[in-house]
Amino acid sequence: MAGKKKSVSFEIQEDIVGMLEHITKKYDLPNIDKAMRCVLDFVALDGDWDDIFTTRRCIRCGGKPGWEEK
User: In whole angstroms, how far apart are CA 15 and each of 7, 51, 59?
Assistant: First the structure.
């Protein structure tokens, strides 16, 4: 368990919770908290912030269901 962790609360859509649960099972992670930390570490180190925050990604617009397991 590297680094001190702080508990935070925020809202996400149900499909994203499902995505985190899927990642947790697929990669044998201890919990969805770890899955979220992995995603955030990637964003912090390898993500293109301009692309992440300026590209519109409407995965729930127009009746779309959001993330779905394939």
Answer: 22, 22, 10
